[in-house]
Design goal:
- By secondary structure, the chain is of the alpha/beta class.
- The protein has a single domain, classed as Leucine Aminopeptidase, subunit E, domain 1.
- Helix content is 42%, strand content 18%.
- The protein has a 6-stranded mixed sheet, with helices on both faces.
- Helix 4 packs across helix 5 and helix 5 crosses helix 6.
- The mean pLDDT is 96.
- The protein binds ligand AR6.
- Ligand AR6 binds next to strand 2 and helix 2.
């Protein structure tokens, strides 16, 4: 495993709405019109202009991603992606992988130096965090390997110490 790539990854217990990164990722729903969890927190912190910009996007299918400005957030951009509702079927993994891949592609198009992901689908959508963590980290590593020296750092912003531990332990197995 390429050490320089692993060094770009970190997992921290944090409120993603407070991170001073170029782009944060939102775990949204297909309407893109806000909701609870991290989606609600991002809309509250960004202010009402975010909802206005989201309204013009016309929703987003599961696994895809769309970008808006960050408005009052410290982050300049928000990438909204829609994770799968966990069903224990093989399609879950495909769709969650697509969320990370499509978000990373958009981040690359903005030449982002730093981006932060929440644990997409691991709240209301019920995805087991150990499975979701592996998909998140593996997809980011593959993307960085295929697009060397493109993106700067990738932060996994976790909302609990238990989730932080799952991510940190998995990342440490890669080194
Ligand atoms: N910063 C970082 N992570 C957070 C924050 C925060 N401020 N707030 C919550 N989390 P969820 P989902 C964590 O439910 O499962 C929404 O209503 C949270 O602890 O936000 O993809 C949408 O509109 C969990 O680990 O997203 C959709 O309807 C993770 O973020 C639906 O929920 C994701 O939990 C999407 O469900």
């Amino acid at each position: 495993m390429n050490k320089q790539i692993i060094a770009k990854l970190s997992a921290v217990k944090s409120d993603i709405t407070r991170l001073k990164v170029d782009i944060i990722i939102n775990a949204a729903n297909q309407s893109l019109l806000g909701g609870g969890g991290v989606d609600g927190a991002i809309h509250r912190a960004a202010g009402p202009m975010l909802l206005e910009e989201c309204r013009a996007l016309g929703g987003c299918p599961t696994g895809e991603a769309k970008i808006t400005r960050g408005f009052n957030l410290p982050a300049q951009w928000v990438i909204h992606t829609v994770g799968p509702i966990y069903s224990a079927k093989p399609s879950d993994e495909k769709l969650l992988t697509a969320c990370y891949y499509n978000s990373l592609k958009l981040a690359l198009s903005k030449k982002a130096g730093s981006i932060a992901f929440p644990a997409i689908s691991c709240g209301v959508y019920g995805y087991p965090v150990d499975k979701a963590c592996k998909i998140a980290v593996d997809t980011c590593v593959s993307f960085l390997e295929a697009n060397t020296s493109s993106l700067g750092k990738i932060i996994f912003s976790l909302f609990s110490f238990s989730h932080e531990k799952v991510y940190q332990e998995y990342i440490s197995t890669l080194q």
